[in-house]
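I hope you will forgive my troubling you with a question about protein structure. I set the record out below, with my sincere thanks for your time.
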Amino acid sequence: MLDFPTNATGNAILEGIKQWVVVLEQERYVDAVRWLYRPPTSGTIWTPALLESLVTNYGLMEPRPDGETYRVTPHDTAKSRGDGHPYRDINWFPPGSAQVNRGVVAAATFDLPLNGEWSDVSATFLIHKVNDRLLVELEDMHVL
């Protein structure tokens, strides 16, 4: 599970997410699901098949009309498109905000490298504080 101490930096959490993306690169979708926190109030039930579908179909659940398929490729070999990709960011919510009061302390966005270049498919995450630890929930994966 992506599990961090409460004093973890944003960079440390983003590095952990990067390692999760490496698991997707290795097509270990079962492990990728196991790495994620699933809060009791979560609406989406992430399955290996759902993750694989979203990667394969460029952020969509259904196959692409053109039949093209995608896979996560290594970060260090992905070509930049020169338009702000790859985008990686973490946004910490202010103390006392509605999110923090619900136990969500931050949100993160991480672009995926697909078929050798940085894509418009981004994974978004919520960072939960649970029992003095920070746990990472996959909120969504889609084209931004």
Summary: The mean pLDDT is 94. The chain has one domain: 3-143.
